[in-house]
Design a protein that fits this description.
Elements: H1 3-28, H2 46-54, E1 60-63, E2 67-71, H3 74-94, E3 106-111, H4 114-121, E4 132-135, E5 138-142, H5 153-167, H6 173-194, H7 214-219, H8 228-245, H9 247-258, H10 263-270, H11 278-289
Parallel strand pairs: 2-3, 3-5
Antiparallel strand pairs: 1-2, 4-5
Helix pairs in contact: 1-6, 3-5, 3-6, 5-6, 6-8, 8-9, 9-10
Bound molecules: zinc ion.
Zinc ion binds next to helix 5 and helix 6.
């Protein structure tokens, strides 16, 4: 059998397996409306009260396997819930956590109407890239049925939710955003494959002169208002580089960084023998970040 045929066969088998998983997920996540007071866990997030007060009679509520959903239209929420549970599994697998949160369910609010969302945004802190708000373990998103989510928005925000649940809120901005981008791009490609599309995770290479110096990037506590796309791309590349270099070490590194360790200490402690020094790391990362610049790099999962 030729290499090409073997590759085609492997791709076919992967797609069949992913389709079976997706069908299973859809079966598991058929949403059933319940009243707010009947939910197994209530949300004490102050933003939840703001959201539900916008049009209290229209909100519906349902429980999924890992999340509690609040929504206006059932068909919008059902599709989103399938995607949310799929993303949950991909993020949990990446972090090598079987059941992150052990029974705790995060709340997700799907806004259908842009005018409600605009009103709500005044109360929350909108993430400029994704258009979602992850706040203290709850997630708020505009899901306009006419526009759907852009690409990997839901996966990105779900990654934040799980990271918050497992590691708390002290993780540096670049690690948090880079991981959310990295894992959600992988998840998006898996989800598309499960629906029968050919897709590989997309990672964007950057021109060397576009790279923000790492010291500056790592100081930021919030995505910058200028060149925000480059910021997310560089953080994604950085996390991808660390994770692909050695995944087991990356998980240790991730835990240390969420405990307020400095990057230099975590790098020295975890990646000893891999990078000779901080400047060795910087050089290798710059080379990796700009690899294949000018072409669309289709990275392997
Ligand atoms: Zn984010």
């Amino acid at each position: 059998m030729t290499r090409r045929r073997i590759a085609c066969l492997l791709l076919f088998l992967t797609t069949v397996k992913a389709l079976a998983q997706l069908n299973e997920l859809q079966g598991l996540n058929a949403l059933q409306d319940v009243s707010l007071s009947d939910l197994s866990q209530q949300d004490d997030n102050p933003l939840a009260k703001v959201a539900l007060a916008l049009h209290p009679d229209d909100w519906k509520h349902a429980e999924g396997e890992h999340f509690i959903y609040h929504y206006v239209r059932s068909f919008v929420a059902t599709r989103a819930a399938v995607e949310a549970e799929f993303n949950f599994r991909v993020v949990a697998k990446e972090l090598e956590k079987e059941e992150p949160g052990s029974g705790h369910k995060s709340h997700i609010y799907f806004f259908d109407r842009p005018e409600d969302w605009q009103e709500f945004q005044k109360a929350g802190h909108l993430e400029p890239w994704t258009g979602g708000i992850q706040s203290a373990g709850s997630l708020f998103l505009l899901r306009d049925p006419a526009h759907k989510f852009s690409g990997h928005t839901l996966g990105h925000e779900i990654a934040h939710l799980i990271v918050y649940r497992l590691y708390g809120g002290n993780i540096p901005c670049w690690v948090n955003e880079g991981f959310a981008e990295y894992v959600s791009r992988n998840s998006r490609a898996s989800y598309q494959r499960a629906r029968g599309y050919l897709a590989k995770p997309h990672s964007t290479s950057l021109a060397p002169e576009e790279l923000m110096p790492l010291d500056r990037l790592m100081e930021l506590t919030y995505p910058p208002s200028e060149k925000v796309e480059d910021f997310y791309d560089e953080c994604e590349r950085l996390v991808r580089f660390l994770a692909r270099t050695d995944h087991a070490r990356f998980l240790t590194f991730f835990a240390l960084m969420s405990g307020k360790e400095t990057f230099d200490n975590a790098l020295t402690h975890v990646y000893a023998g891999v990078f000779a020094s901080r400047s060795d790391f910087n050089d290798k990362f710059r080379e990796y970040a700009s690899k294949d610049y000018g072409t669309t790099l289709q990275d392997q999962p």
